[in-house]
Amino acid sequence: MNEKEFATYVEYVFRHHNQVLNELITSEETTIGNGDVDADDLEDAELDMIRTCDPLNEVVAAEAEQRHASFSTLMKLADVVPECESLTRELEALLHPTPAGLTDTNVDKSGGETSGAAGGPASDTAP
Fold first, then answer.
1. Which of 12, 52, 82, 122 is least enclosed, having the fewest CB within 10 Å?
2. pLDDT confidence of residue 91
3. Cα torsion angle, 55, 59, 65, 68, sign
4. Helix crossing, 39-64 with 71-95: angle to 10°?
5. Residue 45 or 25, more confident
6. ∠ CA(73), CA(59), CA(16), 5° rounding?
7. What is the pLDDT of residue 43?
8. For the segment 6-43, what is each residue's pLDDT rounded down to a tens digit?
9. Model confidence, pTM
10. Side-chain half-sphere of 53: how many Cα atoms within 13 Å?
11. What pLDDT, on a 0 to 100 scale, did the predictor assign at position 88?
């Protein structure tokens, strides 16, 4: 991945992370109240995601304030961003539990696998 592609990926993960956080804030009581998810599981997933995504949020905040993030924080991004994306998706899955009959989402009706892109950024090599 070149620098431009990585910057696009970082922005995508940051936006998705914030979207899920906003959704968590607005739906947490409803989700827990409906019994859709265990409150402790949701809290643990939220804390893991926030801790992991912290360097990403630091870099974005620094850019928004027109200052530079520390070199050590920038160096963490290559490892942190994919992990942040993964934990964000895990929290999102807790907020939107899949009914038992719909768990195999990567197979279409013809039996072929779908791309599995899940709304991710488009690749320059995509057909």
1. 122
2. 92
3. positive
4. 140
5. 45
6. 120
7. 87
8. 999 999 999 999 999 998 888 766 666 566 677 788 88
9. 0.70
10. 27
11. 96
Q: What is the mean pLDDT of residues 58-67?
A: 92
Q: Are 119 and 113 in contact (CB under 8 A)?
A: no
Rounded to the nearest angstrom, the gap between the alpha carbon of residue 72 and the centroid of all alpha carbons in its chain is 22
Name the residue among 119, 94, 87 with its Cα closest to residue 27: 94
| φ, ψ at 38 (rounded to 5°) | -75, 135
Return phi, psi of residue 107, to 5°: -125, 125
SS (H, E, C) the chain: CCHHHHHHHHHHHHHHHHHHHHHHHHHHHHHHHCCCCCHHHHHHHHHHHHHHHHHHHHHHHHHHCCCCCCHHHHHHHHHHHHHHHHHHHHHHHHHCCCCHHHCCCCECCCCCECCCCCCCCCCCCCC
Q: What gap in Å lies between CA 75 and CA 92, rounded to an integer?
A: 27
